[in-house]
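Why should sequence recovery work at all? Because a backbone constrains its sequence more than one might expect. Tight turns favour small or flexible residues, buried strands favour hydrophobic ones, and helices have their own preferences. The token representation captures these environments compactly. In the example below, the structure is given first.
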């Protein structure tokens, strides 16, 4: 599950599925900062084209990039986020399935 701790307006626990970059940490947790890009919000293009990077600054928390569902495969979304330095990707789903 995904636990959002702030802001209060979306604070909750959400159902999710996992797609890991690299070797998954069994039973582990990840803590980081969620960023929603100002451009390329579906992550279907290379973030370098928009001069966007999610690389963690020294001593900073990892960045989880939040992108919208649609227009391309999940694997392409993840690949573009990973190349831009994201520690994880969250794909927002607008369908109740």
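From this structural description, the recovered sequence reads:
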């Amino acid at each position: 599950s995904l636990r959002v701790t702030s802001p209060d307006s979306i604070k909750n626990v959400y159902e999710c599925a996992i797609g890991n970059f690299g070797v998954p940490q069994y039973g582990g947790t990840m803590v980081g900062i969620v960023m929603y890009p100002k451009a390329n919000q579906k992550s279907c293009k290379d973030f370098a084209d928009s001069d966007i990077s999610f690389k963690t600054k020294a001593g900073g928390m990892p960045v989880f990039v939040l992108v919208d569902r649609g227009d391309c495969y999940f694997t392409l979304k993840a690949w573009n986020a990973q190349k831009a330095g994201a520690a994880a990707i969250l794909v927002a789903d607008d369908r109740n399935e």
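A few observations help interpret the result. The CA atoms of residues 2 and 14 lie 5 Å apart.
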